[in-house]
Amino acid sequence: MAIGKFVKGIAAALVATVLGTAAMAEYPEKPITMIIPRGAGGSHDLNARVIASVLPSYLGQPVIVQLMPGSAGQIGTSAAAQAPADGYTILFTQNFIDQLQQHVAELPYDPNGDFVAVARTNFAAPSVIVKSDSEFGSIEDLVAHSKANPGSVKFGHSGNWGAFMVPGALLFNAAGTMPTMVPHKGGGPAMQALLAGDVDVSMAFNSVIDSQAGAVKALVSVAPETQIDGVPTTSEAGLDGVDAVGIMHRVVLVRRDTPPEVVSKLREAFAAMTEDKTYKNLLKKLGENNVYMDGAEYDSVRAEQAESYKALVTTLTGG
């Protein structure tokens, strides 16, 4: 009897292993929703459309982009945190929402306890922009005007403590002045406000600047090296230290309690996508880089970011 029970136990274990392997192979069985906690028209939206057009080739299912802007990214992030931990809802976000928000607001989720990284798809360095017919021909002109007319310059950004507000505040603080900050629900609305003349200056990434067909011009780039011909970097403009924490990382997260095999399959799909010729060409057309980082490696970067942003918030708020 003991031998019979032993054999049955082995058989049951083998069946469980086979079933578990089959279940893993079946993921995904339905479309995957990719939440973006920002509005339409921004760089995240543009990058997401590229991902959604190529990633299905490596997952075997469509990827549906769902824009959920509001509350500086908290609405979309909350929705992803509350979604089932099955890999069918992924969050395409960025480091300022992911790791900085916790230092400036009471969040309805725990960014580190609730999420694990799938991939850092790329990073982007924003540039200060004005309308092409603006009186400001350089960052020096803009800073001089802001100093001479305190509070008169309106700076439209993509949301409080977001991808434009943080480097913008750092830049103007380093320049010894501070414009009137005007928040918007994403990069798209901020660009619209600039074009409409509601604000004097804003920020944008290369992909968005290029899409404006000459309607805007860049004055300075928050980048460690030149990215736009004829446009200085913040360091070259004498604004040191801005690029250290001002660059935006585009990152894909899922709930931390998602099955490990599902996380692995997602990581493998994103890694394979970055080698895809179509993906590379589409990113190039957007003016974006293709500097991929695996989620396991990026998770360690997230921990470092949390400490850096805590110090940054203290510096900017004086608290």
Account of the protein in words:
The structure is a single chain. With about 325 residues, the protein is α/β, with parallel strands linked by helices. It has 2 domains: about 30-120 and about 250-315, Bordetella uptake gene, domain 1 (D-Maltodextrin-Binding Protein, domain 2, 3-Layer(aba) Sandwich); about 125-245, D-Maltodextrin-Binding Protein, domain 2. Helix content is about 45%, strand content about 20%. It has 14 helices and 11 strands. The chain has helices at about 1-25, 45-55, 55-60, 75-80, 95-100, 110-115, 140-150, 165-175, 185-195, 205-210, 240-245, 260-275, 275-285, 295-315, and strands at about 30-35, 65, 90-95, 115-125, 125-130, 155, 180-185, 200-205, 215-220, 250-255, 295. A 6-stranded mixed sheet has the order 2-1-3-10-4-11, sandwiched between helices. Strands 8-5-9 form a 3-stranded antiparallel sheet. α8 links the parallel β6 and β7. α2 (about 45-55) packs antiparallel against α13 (about 275-285). The longest helix has 25 residues, at about 1-25. The protein is globular. It starts with a helix and ends with a helix. Mean pLDDT is about 90; it is low at about 10-25.
Q: What is the count of β-strands?
A: 11
Identify the strand order in the major beta sheet: 2-1-3-10-4-11
* Domain tally: 2
Instruction: Characterize the overall form.
Output: globular
Residue share in β-strands: 15-25%
Derived from helix and strand composition plus strand pairing, the structural class reads alpha/beta
- On the 0 to 100 scale, the average pLDDT is 90
